[in-house]
Amino acid sequence: VQVVESGGGLVQPGGSLRLSCVASGFIFTHYDMRWFRQAPGKERELVAEIQLPGDSTNYGKFVKGRFAISRDNAKSTVYLQMNSLKPEDTAVYHCDAQRVYGMGPPGVWGQGTQVTVSS
Predict the structure, then answer these.
(1) Is 90 left (phi over 0), alpha (psi -120 to 50) or beta?
(2) Fewest CB atoms within 10 Å of the CB: 8, 36, 45, 65?
(3) Using one digit for the tens of pLDDT, what is the confidence trace for 29-63?
(4) What is d(CA 15, CA 13) in angstroms, rounded to the nearest whole number?
C-alpha cells in the first residue's frame, strides 16, 4: 500500500512542472486524492484536492488559477500541473489518499517530491 510522487525538480520562476503520484495496493477509485506541501519552517498546507464522486476540485487560496489537479483512474495516478511557479512555491510536495468508499487503509501518505523554484 503506497503512493509514490515524482516530477519535482529545479525550475526557474515562471516555469512549469507536472507532478505525478502513482497509487498501489488499494482501490484508487475509492479514494479522494490530495496534494499537500511543506516548506522548511512553515506549516503543511493543502495545495489541491480532487474528490469523489464526480471529481470536484478545490485549491489552496495561494494557487490563484496557476495549478490544476487531475486523475487517471486507469493508471491509478493523480497529477498536479503547476504553471507560473514562484519562489514561494518551493517546498516538498506530498500526495495523500483518503478513503471515501469501501474497505482499505483510511489514508495513505507519500514521501514527497522536492520542488525548488529559483533563478
Answers:
(1) beta
(2) 65
(3) 999 999 999 999 999 999 999 999 889 999 999 99
(4) 5
